[in-house]
């Protein structure tokens, strides 16, 4: 490929880090590229909670438009932000090897409030998924909205009268901002595809596809596809507390998924372990089993605006 590949990215520090990583990986394969910065709607509105914006792809649709208008050749996203159905005319080009999929708590000071599940505390997050799982474990806690890029959110933790805030580990670790006192929330199931970076391009753009092919990490691609498939069948988005995690171990795929009521009281869970040779449609199969075992009632209540 002789032309310079145009990489579309949001302007946040994390987004630029991710796009620069792709640029470096392309350079290692002797492919020239340049970054093209594009502001998304999700970056402009930093007040409204994500689950109230009601738009899937809030951080991706502006880059989608730039791709389709041929202003860029590829776009780099945090894969958990990408809708389960890509925009018409756009295809997945590669998924990079996954970083940490975990959520972490960044406490303001001490963490004694975690030792008493019946105690009171104020925790910040904009994620309805994190909110539901946290309230399930700590029903007497109060959840405050937290928006902005990771730098802004960390600053708010220091300034506000909160006990702590929840972040994605990968986001803070990638730009070396994880505080020393941060705690891995091993009990919290992540968002589908959390910790993974995806590259997309226009359909039928064989040059872009060929350029990105070597960057694809197949195990991550398999796991994230199953997680996103699970989310798609459950028709979940930012306004639905749905979690999923697929891990490959010893030629087997271990899958966990759940859906919570908005208040965290009710939940339905699914776990499956299958040989790698039998992972086809696993996300769909797991989602349908979940719906048959309590998930449908929870999803319907959320759809009707109930807790």
TrEMBL record:
<dbReference type="GO" id="GO:0006783">
    <property type="term" value="P:heme biosynthetic process"/>
</dbReference>
<comment type="similarity">
    <text>Belongs to the HMBS family.</text>
</comment>
<feature type="domain" description="Porphobilinogen deaminase N-terminal">
    <location>
        <begin position="5"/>
        <end position="208"/>
    </location>
</feature>
<comment type="pathway">
    <text>Porphyrin-containing compound metabolism; protoporphyrin-IX biosynthesis; coproporphyrinogen-III from 5-aminolevulinate: step 2/4.</text>
</comment>
<dbReference type="InterPro" id="IPR022417">
    <property type="entry name" value="Porphobilin_deaminase_N"/>
</dbReference>
<dbReference type="Pfam" id="PF03900">
    <property type="entry name" value="Porphobil_deamC"/>
</dbReference>
<comment type="function">
    <text>Tetrapolymerization of the monopyrrole PBG into the hydroxymethylbilane pre-uroporphyrinogen in several discrete steps.</text>
</comment>
<comment type="subunit">
    <text>Monomer.</text>
</comment>
<dbReference type="InterPro" id="IPR036803">
    <property type="entry name" value="Porphobilinogen_deaminase_C_sf"/>
</dbReference>
<dbReference type="InterPro" id="IPR022418">
    <property type="entry name" value="Porphobilinogen_deaminase_C"/>
</dbReference>
<dbReference type="InterPro" id="IPR022419">
    <property type="entry name" value="Porphobilin_deaminase_cofac_BS"/>
</dbReference>
<dbReference type="GO" id="GO:0004418">
    <property type="term" value="F:hydroxymethylbilane synthase activity"/>
</dbReference>
<dbReference type="Pfam" id="PF01379">
    <property type="entry name" value="Porphobil_deam"/>
</dbReference>
<keyword id="KW-0627">Porphyrin biosynthesis</keyword>
<dbReference type="InterPro" id="IPR000860">
    <property type="entry name" value="HemC"/>
</dbReference>
<feature type="domain" description="Porphobilinogen deaminase C-terminal">
    <location>
        <begin position="222"/>
        <end position="291"/>
    </location>
</feature>
<dbReference type="GO" id="GO:0005737">
    <property type="term" value="C:cytoplasm"/>
</dbReference>
<protein>
    <recommendedName>
        <fullName>Hydroxymethylbilane synthase</fullName>
        <ecNumber>2.5.1.61</ecNumber>
    </recommendedName>
</protein>
<keyword id="KW-0808">Transferase</keyword>
